[in-house]
Hints:
The protein is an alpha+beta fold. It has seven helices and eleven strands.
Amino acid sequence: MDKQKAAQKMTEVMAKFVGYTGKVLPDDVTAKLRELSERETQPLAKEIYKTMFENQRLAKQLDRPSCQDTGVIQFFVRCGANFPLIGELEELLREAVLRATREAPLRHNSVETFDEYNTGKNVGKGTPSVFWEIVPQSSECEIHTYMAGGGCSLPGKAIVLMPGMGYEGVVKFVMDIMTSYGINACPPLLVGVGVGTSIDVASLLSKKALMRPLGSHNPNERAALTEKLLEESINKIGLGPQGMSGASSVMGVHIENCARHPSVIAVAINVGCWSHRKGHIVWDEQLNFAVKSHKEFAL
């Protein structure tokens, strides 16, 4: 396959995959929502969960987005340096968004800042967002797709703490947000927390945390314990589905971290709605692909 045909193939698949993720939730999110609904005891909360599942059924049946806000499309790319389309990938993903916008369809959510006009294409200056990680001596390309909605992960929060505030300060910041801004998204929520050396790094880590499979844990035992304690604490708020009260406030809490300067602890939080439109696809050097997030996806 020559490079032009390879790019055309990848563009077509990515366009269909992006559109699909707006209509069908990833397998881990669906499984978690079923688990939470079965655990629920309050009649209103149980009825809301039924409505959520009916919404998902109709979205799939009618081939329509499951939420009216299909968000700003974001890509988290972990690409091998030897992947054959590494040079074409960013433009290819932009074209895929254009196609998905027309074909899915997706709501037009790219407004040019200061000029205040909607491009009508879901692309604009800096959109879709593409966050890169290059892997030496690899020929694979791993892509996480995400529809970042106006009520969920786009209004994130970040702060730099003085080191004396310690990790107690991290927990306090997260809990302060989750008892105020956190309910701006539609519960039960997925909470992504980034802890690192600066606001920009922590913010990106908090977004990457939202891409992790539900049920996974930070490999650092102290970070994993903090995830567990935060999840238990936020659940005690009792938000319930759609914030109407219930047994669970969150689907999970994920923390991603990196080394930091000794004088600061930067922490950021991003929150995903229950309608968590993420996708995970992996390409090899022959342009074969494997979808990790949606077992039923097919061209």
